[in-house]
Amino acid sequence: MSFSTYRVGSGTSTRQDWTNTSSHKMLEMIPRGKAIFLCSVGSEVCDLVWDLFSSTDPTEDGVSYAQLLTRLKTHLVPTKVEIAERFKFYQRKQKEEESIKDFEGALWNLAKYCVFGTFPDSALRDAFVIGLVDNNIQTKLLTEENLTLAAAITKAQGMEAASSQSKQLRNKEPILDGVKFYRGLRRLLEVWFLMPPPR
């Protein structure tokens, strides 16, 4: 079937070329797009297609290319259960080294399967504020009245940047100016040992 299907899909078959009447009859009814698909997916997927259409012949005219793809997708891609997706969404917390931007992106990715309807922004805002790992940022955002999702993200990113810069400043070693250090040491030695200044 694979080579015959390929010939129909590639447009190289004609009625005069066929000697096997069962193959000819089968391929005569396959639309070209479906034939191209069936010959390109390989034998395992073709076998699956035949199993999924056990009551009918998937190569018949009554089975469209869209129906074939829908049946495959239904079989191969599990459907998302709304309550389970919302559970995952509300359980998501910011990881210790995860940035505010990455956490926001993860929440948006989880929210697309939650079917929030008319309140996606408030649900995202709530999960965002509740899931923050930094208690200072979280406390500050909880005190804001009429907090929107955009404002929460902007303020959290600003506070995250300020906190990061503050940590960097606290962790820096003091930089000593070599010339000032040498002059100060020289003066100290002059006073202690009553050394004459250099000429």
Mean pLDDT: 76
Number of strands: 0
Indicate the radius of gyration in whole angstroms.
35 Å
Largest sheet: none
Number of helices: 11
Structural class: mainly alpha
User: How would you describe the shape?
Assistant: elongated
Parts with pLDDT < 50 across at least 5 consecutive residues: 14-29
Distance between the first and last residues' Cα: 102 Å
User: And the CATH topology of the largest domain?
Assistant: Non-ribosomal Peptide Synthetase Peptidyl Carrier Protein, Chain A
How much helical structure, as a percent, in the residues? 55-70%
Order of helices and strands: HHHHHHHHHHH
CATH homology-level superfamily of the largest domain: Retrovirus capsid C-terminal domain
What is the architecture of the largest domain at the second tier of CATH?
A: Orthogonal Bundle
Compact summary:
The chain is mostly helical and 199 residues long.
Distinctive features:
Non-ribosomal Peptide Synthetase Peptidyl Carrier Protein, Chain A, mainly alpha, 11 helices, single chain
How would you sum up this structure, described in words?
This protein is mostly helical. The protein has two domains: 2-76, no CATH class; 82-171, Non-ribosomal Peptide Synthetase Peptidyl Carrier Protein, Chain A (Orthogonal Bundle), CATH 1.10.1200.30. The protein has eleven helices and no strands. The protein has helices at residues 2-10, 21-28, 32-40, 43-52, 65-76, 82-91, 100-111, 120-131, 135-142, 149-171, 178-193.
